[in-house]
Design brief:
The complex is a heterodimer of chains A (415) and B (83). Chain A is an all-alpha fold. Chain A has a single domain, classed as Ammonium transporter fold (Orthogonal Bundle), CATH 1.10.3430. Chain A contains 14 helices and no strands. The longest helix of chain A is centred in the C-terminal third of the chain and has 32 residues. About 3% of the residues of chain A have low confidence. Chain B is mostly helical and 83 residues long. Chain B has a domain of 51 residues. In chain B, helix 1 packs antiparallel against helix 2. Chain B is rod-shaped, with a radius of gyration of 20 Å. Classes of the chains: A mainly alpha (415), B mainly alpha (83). At the A-B interface, helix 12 of A face helix 1 and helix 2 of B.
Chain lengths: 415, 83
């Protein structure tokens, strides 16, 4: 390994080690935006889901995705389901770096559906769904994403560009979140027969906002490592990645604050948090190639988009997504992919991005919906009505997250 | 009894079954359109060259948008189905 390569390798490893902060941040956001009676179950589910996804990815996910090393080193690529790569067998230290990046990425991605299914998804079903996700859904699009740079799905010499994972982490997770939310249906009492949907507020905004800050740190590592691995940037290129990621998130958070101020007369904390996350998500695809001004515009659009999208999904499409996961990760992820085509290239790049989005919507979405629908037949996803009323902490874990708090009034309503 | 001579309960039950069938068909149709759109995109990439590829890619993407609209419509709860 020459000194340049050694520097890249070390730096890439440091960036990868920041990724768990993104996982911790998302877990805190999901927990804070849920109900207090399901808080312990939410964070336990996050831990179990990440563990399941990591182990399944180790067993067969990485093999299914194929090694992307051919992009980095210009060698020949591995084919899908390469037998030598099950259990990371035969992997050298450089391949293991890519594999570890994949392990954290699949963990982060598998947490996204947990946000959309908060307060009603069983722990066992969440783990089973995460297992399927890590074994099939995530690797399939990773394979597409990595190999398209080598011309497999590219248009001419231009391939689909997604450095930090707007598509292969966020949109894949967001579309799975949409599927799971549809399969589960809304929480009890969310949509009364007449009138507006009931507002079920977040139980801990401090968790949510602190989760955003943690996720920001994690995203800097995620985008930088992704850009080094998949866009082959040199170590000094990481500076641009960090600038773009930070500016996009900042612009998106402020824009969503202004948008909520205009629409609801005062800034809304949970939507500002969603705005920050939307900026991070949208910045991922083009973090290595966009100019800072373009990254800021990407963030501004994401900040407006997420507020309108959360409202649209809740009021018009009647999808109960307590954490706004579908809007943040699917809608703003798609916007991030489009932004690369708009700001960073020619017409051919735009077409390549459309090919990527078309694959996400036309193949990954039916695949993940079908897998989750089938799994739901064998392992029912939704808790019983009594369990939901009681709270998932007591129902599934046998103990509350906040045992000294006053219990909820509606538990004493006459049935 | 209603005007058609059917008990109202049966009529409502029949309407609900019909409604369920139509939403299932709508979801299925939507997902098939999504897959068909993707097939157009991939086929265009595989067998065509030059500027015509982009035209077919956008056409396939348009088919997917139609499919997506149908899937969303199929998942909208019918009035009275909600809690």
């Amino acid at each position: 390994m020459n000194p340049d390569m050694q520097l890249s390798f070390g730096l890439c490893l440091v960036f990868i080690l920041l990724e768990p902060f993104a996982i911790a941040g998302l877990a805190l956001i999901n927990t804070g935006l849920g109900r207090s009676r399901s808080a312990a179950q939410a964070i336990t589910t996050a831990l179990c889901v990440v563990s399941t996804a990591a182990l399944v990815y180790f067993v067969c996910g990485f093999a299914a995705a194929g090694s992307p090393l051919f992009i980095w080193f210009g060698g020949s690529g591995k084919s899908v389901l390469e037998p030598a790569m099950f259990f990371f067998r035969g992997a050298g230290v450089l391949t293991l770096v890519v594999a570890i990046f994949g392990v954290f990425s699949v963990g982060l991605s598998s947490l996204i559906p947990i946000g959309a299914s908060a307060d009603r998804l069983r722990l066992g079903a969440a783990c089973a769904s995460a297992g399927l996700f890590a074994a099939l859904t995530y690797p399939v699009f990773s394979f597409f994403s990595w190999h398209s740079r080598a011309g497999l799905f590219g248009t001419g010499s231009v391939g689909f560009l997604d450095s930090g994972g707007s598509g292969f982490i966020n949109v894949v997770g967001g579309l799975t979140a949409l599927s799971v939310a549809w399969i589960l249906g809304p929480r009890q009492g969310k949509y009364p027969p007449k009138g507006m949907p009931a507002a079920i507020p977040a139980h801990n905004q401090v968790f949510v906002l602190f989760g955003c800050m943690l996720a920001g740190v994690g995203w800097l590592g995620l985008n930088s490592a992704g850009a080094m691995l998949y866009t082959s940037i040199r170590p000094e290129g990481a500076v641009l990645v960090i600038i773009n990621t930070t500016f996009a998130a900042a612009a998106a958070a402020l824009t969503s604050a202004v948008t909520t101020r205009i629409r609801f007369r005062r800034p809304d904390a949970s939507l500002i948090a969603n705005g920050w996350m939307a900026g991070l998500v949208a910045s991922s695809a083009g973090c290595a190639v966009l100019k800072p001004a373009a990254a800021i515009i990407t963030g501004i659009v994401a900040g407006v988009l997420v507020v309108l999208s959360v409202e649209w999904f809740e009021l018009h499409l009647r999808i109960d997504d307590p954490c706004g996961s579908i809007s943040v990760h699917a809608v703003c992820g798609i916007w991030g992919l489009l932004a690369v085509g708009i700001f960073a290239g020619s017409g051919a790049q735009f077409t390549a991005q459309i090919v990527g989005i078309a694959t996400l919507l036309g193949f990954i979405f039916p695949l993940t919906y079908g897998l989750n629908w089938t799994l739901n037949r064998f392992i029912p996803y939704r808790v019983s009505l009594d369990g939901e009323r009681q709270g998932l902490d007591l129902h599934e874990l046998g103990a509350d997250a906040y045992p000294e708090f006053v219990v909820h009034a509606d538990e004493f309503l006459q049935r | 009894m209603n005007a058609a001579g059917l008990p109202t309960l049966y009529r409502d039950y029949g309407l609900r079954i019909l409604n369920r069938h139509s939403t299932v068909n709508m979801k299925l149709g939507g997902f098939l359109l999504l897959l068909a759109g993707w097939a157009i995109v991939v086929t265009a990439l595989a067998i065509l060259h030059g500027h015509v590829v982009a035209a077919f890619v956008y056409a396939g993407f348009g088919v997917e948008i139609l499919g997506l609209m149908l899937v969303f419509r199929g998942h909208l709860p019918a009035s009275g189905d909600e809690e």
